Every structure is written in structure tokens, then in C-alpha cells.
Amino acid sequence: MKPLASILQFGLVILGLPCAGVTAAPARNVTFLSSSDSHYREADHRGGCHNDLNRASVEEMNRIGDLAWPKQLGPEKIDKPRGVVMLGDLIDDGDRAENGRQISAEQYQLFQADLGLDGSDGLLKYPMFEGWGNHDGPPIGMQKHGFSSQGELKRRNLIRIEKKLISNVSSNGLHYSWDWDDVHFVQLNIYPADQQRASVHYSSVWHNPQGSLAFLKADLAKNVGTSGRPVVLMAHCGFDTDWWVAQDWAEFYQAAKPYNVVLYLYGHSGTGVSTWAPQGEEHKWNCINDGQLTTGFFVINLTGNRLRAAYRLKSHVVFTKGPDGKMQHTWDGGWGWKWLLDTRIDPVTTPATK
């Protein structure tokens, strides 16, 4: 894990009032939460269990509207979040059974009990928008033990469409997008590409991105076009992964370059904030590596031309290995803030917006 720190502070943005007789678009004010890598385990997992820490993070998510932003970003209270994005590795063992016991299904039930789907069916009080990661199991039909977390994602996306939580889903039912105010969000699952490169020697089955890049191209062309409105992209992997490689990163960047990408969210490898662009590209994307639900979550807000974010972090969590070889943990119950981001999101002039 390599934490990255990048705190950018700017002055206030003064917005003009609309002319008389002109209907103004609703003001942009979107607050949401982001986390990943919950790795839910059955209670008697051979390596130990940390589900109680996940649950404590969900409870803190439910309380977040009672808190103020860190003083560097505030001082006002945090608005009620529109929802929570979860960026993969929801469970620890995506295709496992023992002596007829469906371990993966048990882990998924624990994830679902805490995170729910629409804010009314689990501990979490907001809608939740998950993607799959490298721990969550293979594509539908490729699993060995019956249960498929990707099958569950496909089923849940049908419910999201019915409840109007999302507006577009890929033909395979996995990748999807939606709008909050004028901000467009795209969930790309494990990583943005159409297939794993032949030169990458990892499981091509479990790491199959299943056309997420093609979905992104079509979705942005149809739903964003030349509007210039902000775009938030998300996937499990970031620009530090050795089986989603630099050639893939460049193709992903070129696919989204004509659009106003204000943030890329990812999990898998650590926690922090940074900026990134391929070599030779001038415009860098804001990036958040959103950490593990076990330790906390990011609070993110887009208001006008401002993007701000902060990581809500458990304090003094200590992991140790017990005499039975299982990981144990202690936590003093405290919370704090870390990895603050405050920056402008002025529109980018590209061929799509000229």
C-alpha cells in the first residue's frame, strides 16, 4: 500500500445569477461516499474475520450527515449522501465451497445484509452501487461451485433500472451508469478494457473485464456527448496494477479524453489522492484510491466548480496474528480525517466540447 497525498486549495467560486426570464439549471450539489475491498468472510474463516469493522464503517456512513467537513474543507455540515459506490472485492472468496457448504454465498449474504441495495433493505441507509473485483469470482457460467457474484450483480442491476437508480446497463448486464444532478457516473467493474491482454499472465477468466471499455465509449457518446458536463469514472483497479497494464491505461484515457472527466475512483491497492495522465498528456485526472471498508471510506462532494473529498478513517486499528494463526484486531472506537482534496473542476476544452 502506497498512500498518496495531494491537497489542493483554491478560493471561492462566485457564480453569476441567471438573467430574468431564463430558467436556470438546478445547482450542482452532489455528495456521495466511496469505498471498496470489504472482503466479507464467513465467521469461522480460516484467516480470521473483520466483518465487525466493515459494519462499523457502514454505521458511520449512516451518521455522516450529522458531521461537519474537516475545517480545511468546511465549515458546513456534510449533506446527506446520494449513495455509496463500492469498487470491488466485496467478498474474500468468489468461488469457494467446502463439504457442500457454499462459502461464497455465505460471504455475499453478509455483504448484502450490511450494504443492501436501495437504502431500505440492509444496514446502509443509502442506495449502493457496487462493482466486482478480482476476489469476487469469475464470469457467469464459469464458476465451479454454483454461486456467482456477477450473477447477483446482473440481477441487482435489473432492480436498479426498475427503481430508476441507474439509467444505462451494458448488454451483458454488468457495467452501468447514472446521473446525479448533471454529473454522470460510470461503474466499470474490475478495470476498463474489453479483454485481458495476451501478454498478461494472470487468470484470464477471473480477470476478464468483459467489454467495459466498449460500454464506456458508447455510454459517454450517447449520454454525455458534447455537453461538457462532469464525468466520474470508477473501477476496482488503478494505475498501479500489473495485470491492468500501461497500454490499457492509455486506451482508457483516450476513450474518455474528449469528455470532462473530473474524477477517477478505484480500490484494490491502498488509500490516497493523486493526479494522473499518460506520458505526454497535459490534462491530468483527479484520482482517489478509496481504501478498504474495514478502515473507512471517502466522503466526496461536487458543488459548482468545486470538488472536495476526505477520508473518514478509524483511529488506532491494530491487526495481530493469534496463536491459532488467525488475524485478530483491536480498535479504540475513534474516528478521524485524512487524505483531503480540494480543487476546481473547470470544464476541459476538448474536441467534444468545442
What does this entry look like structurally?
It is a single chain. The chain is an alpha/beta fold. It has a single domain, classed as Purple Acid Phosphatase, chain A, domain 2, CATH 3.60.21. Helix content is 18%, strand content 25%. It contains 5 helices and 17 strands. It has helices at 51-63, 103-115, 149-162, 212-223, 246-256, and strands at 29-35, 84-87, 97-98, 101-102, 128-131, 168-169, 176-180, 183-187, 230-234, 260-266, 271-276, 285-290, 296-303, 306-314, 318-321, 327-330, 335-344. The strands form 4 sheets. The protein has a 7-stranded mixed beta sheet, with helices on one face. A hairpin with a 2-residue loop joins strand 3 and strand 4. The longest helix has 14 residues, at 149-162. It is globular.
What's the SSE blueprint?
Elements: E1 29-35, H1 51-63, E2 84-87, E3 97-98, E4 101-102, H2 103-115, E5 128-131, H3 149-162, E6 168-169, E7 176-180, E8 183-187, H4 212-223, E9 230-234, H5 246-256, E10 260-266, E11 271-276, E12 285-290, E13 296-303, E14 306-314, E15 318-321, E16 327-330, E17 335-344
Key descriptive features of the protein:
six-stranded mixed β-sheet; Purple Acid Phosphatase, chain A, domain 2; disordered N terminus; 18% helix; single chain; 354 residues; alpha/beta; seven-stranded mixed β-sheet
Radius of gyration: 20 Å
What sort of overall outline do the alpha carbons produce when their principal axes are compared? globular
Could you say what the CATH architecture is?
4-Layer Sandwich
Strand order of the largest sheet: 6-7-8-9-10-12-11
Q: What is the name of the CATH class?
A: Alpha Beta
Largest sheet: 7 strands, mixed
> What is the H/E string?
EHEEEHEHEEEHEHEEEEEEEE
